[in-house]
């Protein structure tokens, strides 16, 4: 598999591979397809005839299973009449590998030089999962249905759920995105998140399938190039490697990333732009309460923001961005503590995720981009992906643009060869590469700009007036005008923006793929008709989540300090809210379900319970949901002892009932209290029988435990949620 595709540098010995022969491939367009969306449902994988370059020398074969509109008679002419055009690709990142697949399928001779394949194989831990959005998935389908099918299969679908921006502090929704309908309305696959390692392995395997095992050469650092006149007339590009070897080709593509050497030689030294942010990142075993409805969230703050995304298999990937000078480092073992200093006051979705990540899995890198450039190509050399347009990661489109680039470049080169009746030597390569640049420049520049704007917005967000200059003004909780206006602008523009980002390249790839809707892309845990409801109503997401509600107090195991600590295990005491439960003083003869160890607390102090859709249940002391205005919620009643109950620091009236929401902080008997109970939601698959209301227990946050049998209704919920019935401790 990978091992044979990833050849060692010792094999990197000669400049030429044997001619590739004739390949019919679907990428050169003939009649554009205008198949309406949702025409049919594709099976999960499409049968594909596999051909290597060697095999292709002798036979004319179709590389991909013919799609109704995909076969191209023009493509049959590619390389029929001469030796194939040879393309050297510097860099086996996403862009370089996708380009290699696309070109090999067109019968080009391809050589990929990669400086360090550990990045592909995954030894380099810094390569976390990547979002491959609908536009890039469509380009992949147009290049190679088999590769696309593998990516679709391996990826975790996030576009089938609600995604969006939230307030970092409170966790409240700011703006939600629907990336599902822009995709399915145009017959595109729905956005996935996939491990970079898996993605690159899928691509490298395809390169091997179509070209043989020696196409990708490891340990080959491209240092420079020059154009030389050939003895036979015309020019070629000579590519120099660090080890002194040189190789010749008709075309050199610099897909060597943000620090590209090809770029430096092509357009001269330009400074990368430090985004102002360092980025901590990690992956943890964690299942947010609303995972069945929410795919990813960006939590906004001032000078800091946090991104969390489902990456499948019970794991969440997160990025914590913090504004500071570049080059900062942390002492070993202190990253989580630093993150909790920065994000510790933010909502549970952020804090719990950080706590659940093992210290050694927290990584850090400074974020750079490059200002847009308008020359990507000169002579026989062109740039692709980050070497041409490294952008801020906020839109999750950097890699997607590299994939689109690869599609465009392969199609432009193929068309040019076909236009010369397959005579590669007759192609004006410089003109084709300029055309490629012109075809990509507008779209890429616009998306580059949007990514910059998204980064600016995410990091300058202020929830309340006074933030950053007056604590007192901030305490008045007047919504910041920037937040209000920004939200309005986003609500008005976002649908069109998403439509263009995800669907703006659709016509371009249409000749080589068929629009379709896949049943597998539909939301798994809720009816698609509820999308609108979740987009419009934040509370409906809370209520529809497959989650238990807890009233729980956390403290650091070693010190007993409230709140819990980053690096020591956290102890929890609390109850699952459901049937009516009494809160009272420790050791009380009333046998409260939740004990509070404080003499200020009454023996029968308060009551908590859940009311279902029917609103049938009520507190045993006759408590009811007065004034809630809605059934199906969680409630707290102060039992009128005069000792006092505080919710979020405000004392509620004696004997009154309040509705509880996730994140609410509840104190009994006094404020401030040494035991602060928080309302938390926990996905049903994480339910733990170790949580009980009489004493503190050490509970792992989000760590996988031994599977245990679920109670029947948990099993149903877990199955609906697409989990394998695995029980995970809190
Ligand atoms: C935190 C973060 C999150 C991101 N999330 C997303 C996301 O969700 N979705 C998305 O689409 N994009 C995302 N991106 C952007 C994405 O990672 C890049 O845009 C993408 O990797 C660019 O692909 P590339 O092939 O152009 O370059 P790279 O992936 O950087 O690959 C370049 C390759 O060239 C090799 N190389 C370098 N120099 C040489 C040389 N001289 N000779 C030979 N080989 C060389 C490198 O080893 C590397 O393998 C994110 C970026 C960051 C920083």
TrEMBL record:
Chief place where the protein resides: plastid
Span of domain FHA: 581-652
Record's compositionally biased regions (Low complexity): 614-629
Record's keyword annotation contains Nucleotidyltransferase: no
Pfam families: FAD_binding_3 (PF01494), FHA (PF00498)
Cellular component, GO annotation: chloroplast; membrane
GO terms for MF: FAD binding; zeaxanthin epoxidase activity
Keywords: Abscisic acid biosynthesis, Chloroplast, FAD, Flavoprotein, Oxidoreductase, Plastid, Transit peptide
Compartments (UniProt record): Plastid, Chloroplast
GO biological process: abscisic acid biosynthetic process
Pathway(s) annotated for this protein in UniProt: Plant hormone biosynthesis; abscisate biosynthesis; Hormone biosynthesis
Top-level class of the enzyme under EC nomenclature: oxidoreductase
Region (Disordered): 608-629
Matches recorded under SUPFAM superfamilies: FAD/NAD(P)-binding domain, SMAD/FHA domain
Enzyme Commission number(s) from the entry: 1.14.15.21
Obligatory cofactor(s): FAD
Domain of life: Eukaryota
Name of this chain's protein: Zeaxanthin epoxidase, chloroplastic
Organism: Pleodorina starrii
